[in-house]
Write a structure and sequence with these properties.
heterodimer, A: three-stranded antiparallel sheet, 15 helices, 47% helix, B: Alpha-Beta Plaits, 4 strands, 25% helix, binds iron/sulfur cluster, Fe-S_cluster_ET (chain B), 3 iron, 4 sulfur cluster binding (chain B), electron transport (chain B), iron-sulfur (chain B)
Chain lengths: 429, 61
């Protein structure tokens, strides 16, 4: 069945397109991609004003980078286009928020290189390979519970709540040794942090206070855990992190807390949205689903295509540190650039037939984990393996999964997310 | 073909290891090690060098 027409509408009026307006981001993907296509072709450095967020002063606006080549050029020159003025918000980050959210992502060298090295020692592919067995156990358990939920509920499940959300949350909490009792709080707070101010997820009208409270609660949990592991080491990532050092330097407690927030938030929501919207894409492209389900040797390319297609993180920001020129655009120091990964991932200069979902696409140099440069996703390896295990297990264990739609989209420009995705397990009676 | 890695540039992303696990390994120090500097699987190694986010891998013929 087709949940959303995969064919782009013929006409988009660019005058109605405002990338800063989070309501624009709940429009159907076909319409959004048609608009991004026109921006890429006609206005590759289109200028947009920053949105109003109560309590946060809005700045001078930004350029939306939509061509793959320009995005790569900016991303690979971190000295010219820095992250330290804020990478995850259009506005410059208020000092209070920087404390919790000013981790690796919004840092420049030499500090970034040092901390990244301390962290990446604990996050190597081999280290993660050891956790894969537990990933398999978690996935099997989550899918069995989804089956039970369907049986109790006339076959109806919510792909987000019953499959996509619990898998990455349990994986990351397991790896870090977060106790069972603290996990619901972790999920709720990471929802708030990545809500983009979506009113359904933030109870009062004061996003700044909500972000601060969520950050403080997460930081408190992590400081507690870090303290416990220092005194009583275990075989988990938290222990490795508190003990890891480079040139005799360790992470401070505050650095650990903000890295944990990054890991929980980044490791949770992005994988969740890749699972839910990967399943949505497979329901829209049934031949691709049949082809991938029948052939485990497509697990690698299939997952890469899901990440290209979904682009779970829509953009990261860079700020010019000097005057210069990129892709024919002259800029001055202080100018902001938003790197639209979702647009670059459908650039026809790089991807043949970019609006086609092709689980065998190879090579697939997508920028769903970031482009060239030192900020490339630290969790890419974990995410890839986790997604490979998850999709294969779903093909094997839930072959009767049928998305019934419609998807409920998160109103956020930053995260391409689903809040709910209704589905049926038809084999359930 | 010969491949070398600049371990100062490497950020330990593991992208190369995914594409050519016999040739690259990110070891416990968090940085890449080249296991075969004259690899057989040239195509995968070229792809890895191309996709390395920090251009830490150099291929010479
Ligand atoms: S792809 Fe590049 S940065 Fe990533 S581990 Fe390999 S050499 Fe290092």
């Amino acid at each position: 069945m087709s949940v959303e027409a995969p064919i782009p509408p013929a006409e988009v009026d660019l005058a109605t397109v405002d990338l800063s307006d989070r309501e624009w981001w709940v429009r159907p993907p076909a319409e959004r991609h048609a608009a991004l296509d026109r921006l890429r072709a006609e206005r590759p450095f289109a200028f947009f004003a920053e949105p109003e967020i109560p309590g946060i002063p809005s700045g001078p606006g930004y350029h939306a980078v939509t061509r793959y080549a320009d995005l790569e050029a900016i991303s690979s020159q971190p000295a010219v286009f820095c992250s330290g003025k804020g990478a995850v918000s259009m506005q410059d980050v208020p000092a209070e928020l920087h404390e919790f959210y000013g981790s690796l992502i919004s840092m420049d060298d030499p500090r970034h290189a040092k901390i990244r090295r301390i962290v990446s020692k604990t996050f190597t592919p081999r280290m993660l390979e050891r956790t894969l067995d537990s990933v398999r156990t978690i996935v099997d358990d989550v899918l069995a519970r989804a089956r039970a939920t369907a049986e109790a509920n006339d076959g109806v499940i919510d792909v987000v709540a019953d499959i996509a959300a619990p898998i990455p949350l349990r994986v990351i909490c397991d790896m870090m040794g977060v106790p069972e009792a603290d996990r619901p709080g972790v999920l709720a707070n990471s929802n708030i942090i990545l809500s983009g101010g979506d009113p359904e997820l933030i109870e009062n009208d004061d996003p700044l206070t909500a972000f601060l409270t969520a950050g403080m609660e997460m930081a408190a949990l992590m400081e507690r855990l870090a303290g416990e592991r220092l005194a009583d080491p275990r075989d988990d990532l938290t222990t490795a992190l508190v003990r890891s050092e480079v040139d005799g330097e360790r992470l401070s407690h505050q650095e650990i807390a903000s890295f944990f927030i990054l890991l929980l938030v980044a490791g949770n929501e992005t994988t969740r949205n890749a699972i839910s919207q990967g399943l949505l894409a497979l329901s829209e492209w049934p031949q691709e689903r049949a082809r991938w389900a029948a052939d485990p040797s497509l697990d690698r390319t299939g997952v890469e295509e899901v990440v290209r297609w979904v682009s779970p993180v829509t953009w990261m920001r860079r700020t010019a540190t000097q005057d210069g020129e990129v892709g024919g655009h002259r800029f001055t120091a202080g100018e902001k650039f938003l790197l639209f990964y979702n647009a670059a991932n459908r650039d026809p200069e790089v991807f043949a037939d970019p609006q086609r979902f092709d689980v065998g696409r190879d090579p697939n140099p997508h920028v769903g984990f970031g482009s060239k440069g030192p900020h490339f996703c630290l969790g890419a390896h974990l995410a890839r393996r986790e997604l490979q295990v998850t999709f294969r297990a779903i093909f094997d264990q839930l072959p009767d999964l049928e998305v019934t739609g419609p998807p409920h989209r998160l109103a956020s420009s930053f995260v391409n997310g689903l809040k709910r995705l209704p589905a049926r397990l038809g084999g359930t009676r | 073909m010969r491949v070398t890695a600049d371990r100062e540039l490497c950020v330990g992303s593991g992208a190369c290891e995914m594409l050519a696990p016999d040739v690259f390994e990110v070891s416990d120090d968090g940085v890449v090690h080249v296991l075969q500097d004259r690899p057989d699987d040239e195509e995968s190694v070229r792809q890895a060098a191309q996709q390395c986010p920090t251009r830490a891998l150099t291929v010479t013929d």
